[in-house]
């Protein structure tokens, strides 16, 4: 609420502060916060009363702080127009035997009309049906009612639908309602079920009068009033003032007039009416929020069903398997026999097949974020994997919305599925940008590779030495005298020993490579699982948590708006 409006509310209160304006301001602000939190989450049709209250409260408090709008409402033949004229002491509203007589609202203003013009414009009373109760002949007789705007409403049981609609509209705008009933129809079902019962939260601004009391024998009047009080108690209107009036006798409205004078003097009716409106709106909104905000936040850990389903849809098992194969492939290319390494490099790298980071070039890994290839070649999810992902998303929504009312549970489900269309690309990017742990060659690869080069050079040296001796003999030159290791010539030892050592090194490192490849696969799978879990957090869980947060805000706002 704006500071100007806050000032107007405070100025609207005079005398005995039975309605705290600051508390009323806080409650109206809380209703506004509820609407902000519920906007887009709940159906608009369910928020219409709250929107209407916020708009109506601001307008009413901004229009006039010196006037009290009181409406006379009643059924056909209840004599409310006669009562209206009796209070005004003029024939202002038409009275006759034809029913309904009052087709439009009439207004009588005590005091200058200028101050009430904007208020009457807001209520929609036509200028030709506005009257001023101000006369030099009255002296100070009417001064106690200065500030009263009395409305004579159409009959709410009129056969003309436009009359009923006008009554319903004005009943939502006035500050205080005087329900006029007569001895014949005071127990009519329409007045009790359609109107009085609906005003049980506005008992502070409700008054009931049994008009035409002169038609009852004096002995019957107490019995009729007691029966009417019983009906009012059944309508949850216990304690509402109940008066007996008659328009044909000036003394028959004395008590009613005194009540109006007190109401006008207090300047409290508008605040009481708004407080009752807030009560009504809050009661209608209570079913739209849970008793307590949900505390069960969806889990997206590695073991959660959503993460497992995302991992399956992202092809994490296939990528992890490719990591294991790539590790073996690269380890063999680095630790294998140098003479066959070139042939092994001709075989495709398993990760390259998936358009994932391949072997490092120049000691640096290829950054997938800078790769010109925008997407991986990870196999598309199968129908089973897509179905599992849909069920996992649904499970997250169901778990989060278990204790929520249907509108919020629906909003949670909608939020959980709101970004499903973005998931494939997001998962693909997450897989492509995950560090799979193969960007650096382990040190032991270099050590084993160096050993392989040494034994290979030894074998080549031995072979070359033997070839040189063979060539000299073929040319008839003196044969070389080979050094011996025991009975074997050293070149032969170098050749056969180098070949045998190379095979032994390769054979001994193969189990280590398999073990290290499985570890690399496990590390990559964990990293990929965390990456796809983050995608699930962003695309599924965060929208759900946003709805839960807004529900919490709405829940707290509704608690603040409740009467304290």
Automatic annotation (TrEMBL):
Where is the chain membrane-spanning? 450-472, 492-513
Domain G positions: 70-211
Q: Which InterPro entries match?
A: GTP-bd (IPR006073), GTPase_Era-like (IPR005662), P-loop_NTPase (IPR027417)
Region described as Disordered: spans on this chain: 354-382
Residues in coiled coil? none
One Gene Ontology MF term: GTP binding
Q: Which UniProt keywords apply?
A: Membrane, Transmembrane, Transmembrane helix
Question: Gene3D superfamilies recorded for this chain?
Answer: P-loop containing nucleotide triphosphate hydrolases
Any Gene Ontology CC annotation:
cytosol
Question: What GO terms in the biological process aspect are recorded for it?
Answer: ribosomal small subunit assembly
Q: Which PANTHER family match?
A: GTPASE ERA (PTHR42698), GTPASE ERA, MITOCHONDRIAL (PTHR42698:SF1)
The protein, known as: ABC transporter
Q: Please tell me the species this chain comes from.
A: Micromonospora haikouensis
What lineage is this protein's organism placed in? Bacteria, Bacillati, Actinomycetota, Actinomycetes, Micromonosporales
């Amino acid at each position: 609420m704006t500071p100007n409006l806050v000032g107007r509310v405070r100025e609207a209160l005079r005398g005995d502060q039975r309605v705290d304006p600051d508390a009323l301001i806080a409650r109206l602000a809380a209703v506004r916060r509820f609407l902000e939190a519920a906007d887009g989450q709940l159906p608009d049709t369910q928020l219409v009363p709250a929107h209407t209250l916020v708009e109506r409260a601001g307008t009413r408090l901004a229009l006039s702080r010196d006037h009290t709008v009181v409406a006379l409402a009643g059924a056909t033949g209840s004599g409310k127009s006669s009562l209206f004229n009796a209070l005004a002491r003029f024939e202002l509203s038409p009275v006759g035997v034809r029913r309904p007589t009052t087709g439009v609202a009439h207004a009588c203003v005590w005091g200058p009309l200028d101050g009430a013009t904007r208020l009457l414009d807001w209520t929609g009373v036509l200028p030709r049906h506005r009257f001023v109760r101000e006369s030099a002949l009255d002296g100070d007789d009417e001064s106690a009612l200065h500030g009263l705007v009395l409305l004579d409403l159409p009959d709410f049981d009129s056969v003309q639908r436009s009359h009923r609609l006008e009554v319903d509209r004005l009943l939502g705008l006035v500050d205080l309602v005087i329900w006029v009933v007569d001895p014949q129809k005071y127990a009519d079902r329409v007045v009790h079920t359609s109107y009085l019962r609906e005003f049980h939260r506005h008992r502070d601004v409700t008054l009931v009068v049994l008009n035409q009391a002169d038609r009852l024998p004096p002995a019957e009047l107490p019995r009729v009033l007691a029966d009417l009080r019983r009906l009012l108690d059944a309508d949850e209107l216990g304690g509402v003032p109940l008066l007996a009036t008659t328009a044909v006798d000036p003394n028959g409205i004395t008590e009613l007039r005194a009540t109006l004078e007190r109401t006008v003097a207090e300047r409290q009716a508008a605040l009481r009416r708004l407080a009752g409106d807030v009560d009504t709106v809050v009661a209608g909104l209570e079913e739209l929020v849970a008793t307590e905000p949900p505390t069960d936040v969806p889990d997206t850990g590695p073991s959660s069903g959503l993460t497992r389903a995302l991992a399956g849809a992202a092809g994490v098992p296939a990528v992890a398997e490719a990591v294991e194969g790539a590790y073996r492939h690269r380890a063999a290319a680095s630790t294998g026999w140098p003479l066959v390494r070139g042939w092994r490099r001709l075989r495709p790298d398993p990760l390259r097949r998936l358009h994932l980071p391949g072997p490092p070039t120049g000691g640096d890994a290829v950054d997938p974020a800078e790769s010109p290839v925008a997407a991986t070649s990870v196999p598309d999810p199968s129908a089973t994997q897509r179905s599992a992902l849909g069920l996992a998303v649904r499970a997250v929504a169901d778990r989060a919305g278990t204790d929520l009312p249907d509108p919020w549970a629906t909003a949670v489900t909608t939020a959980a599925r709101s970004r499903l269309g973005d998931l494939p690309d997001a998962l693909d990017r997450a897989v492509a940008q995950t560090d799979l742990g193969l960007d650096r060659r382990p040190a032991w690869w270099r050590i084993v590779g160096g050993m392989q080069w040494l034994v290979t050079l030894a074998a080549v040296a031995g072979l070359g030495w033997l070839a040189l001796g063979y060539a000299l003999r073929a040319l008839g030159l003196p044969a070389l005298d080979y050094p011996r290791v025991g009975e074997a010539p050293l070149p032969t030892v170098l050749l056969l020993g180098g070949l045998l050592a190379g095979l032994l090194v390769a054979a001994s490192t193969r189990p280590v490579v398999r073990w290290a490849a499985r570890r690399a696969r496990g590390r990559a799978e964990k990293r990929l699982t965390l990456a796809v879990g983050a995608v699930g957090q962003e695309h599924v869980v965060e929208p759900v948590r946003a709805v839960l947060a807004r529900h919490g805000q709405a829940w707290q706002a509704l608690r603040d708006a409740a009467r304290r």
